Amino acid sequence: MLAAKTILDDHAAAFTWLAGDLGRVATGCCQPHEAGGDSLVFVSDEAQLAQIAGRNPAIVVVQGRFAARVDPAIMAQGCWFSVRNIPMGMALLLRHFDRKCLRFAQWGERHATAVVHDTAIIGNGVFLGPYCVIGAGASIGDGCLVGSHAVIENDATVGAGSVIHPHVFIGARCQVGQRCEIHPHTTIGGDGFGYAVDPDGKPRKISHLGNVQIGDEVEIGSNCAIDRATLSSTYIRAGAKLDNICHIAHNCDLGENGFYTAGFMMGGSTKIGRQFMTGGNSVVTAHVTIADNVSLSGRSSVTNDVPLPGHYAGYPLQPLKEAMKTAVSIGQLNEIRKNLNRVMKLLKLDHESTDTPGS
User: Fold this and answer.
1) Is the pTM of this model over 0.85?
2) Could you confirm whether 250 is annotated as catalytic?
3) Which domains does the chain carry?
């Protein structure tokens, strides 16, 4: 539930009140064509404005540049605000309707089937779902939500306000910061892929004795795997956001506030700087370093250090503009080959004669 007055009281720096009744209250957020009298709606163009005609939503948030084009008469009903950036507006307001806590709280603070070791430390207001397991010496901070069948092993820590969804595994001694969210079927702190090979070719597993350290306000999607380090730590720094199906190998270090899109994979002992961003299905090899403020297009492959910030793409990796030219050239290779054959015939050349000494 969100009262229009709350937007002014709590988010005045981001929103500008345009017109209407500050007493209006929205109980949910809808797309413009589904809006009702108790809805919050975001509008960024003429088509969406037309869709809310006659629906009288409780609160309307308009894209700042578009606000001047809205007829003041239309704002006679509801309560209207402008925001410079619609996605940021959504980030600030949609949380008022997020009922995630209710999914965990329905079982009470600790379900009867939750297994909690006597030496584990459970903070205030923690919800433990059915069949979750909290190991010896583990610490769960105040206000955490732990879903059903989640496993938090011995001496692992989860910071205050974090959400651990069902079927998440957090390995022994791993550390999760405050206000993090880890989605279902993700593994934090499985062993890395490390082996030594005997002279006879038999692989010998290298034990991984380190851990994973995750900073504050990190979000990790479903079906991700983040390997523990061999001896020290694998780091996911504060503010990083990992999409679904990402693999982070042992001993890696991911910088603050990076965005890792679905299908991202990286080899071990690689360091990525701050403000990294990548498109889907990108790959970074082992033992390289990537600078701050690097952006990769989807399906890029990094095989060497990237020492300078910028936009990159392709395999082998190139600056984005060069990679786009390469992609265009690859699409023309068949035509280039045909034209080359025509030129060689015109000059009465062939591959054998050009390769013969003295020809």
Assistant:
1) yes
2) yes
3) 2-97 (3.40.1390.20), 106-322 (2.160.10.10)
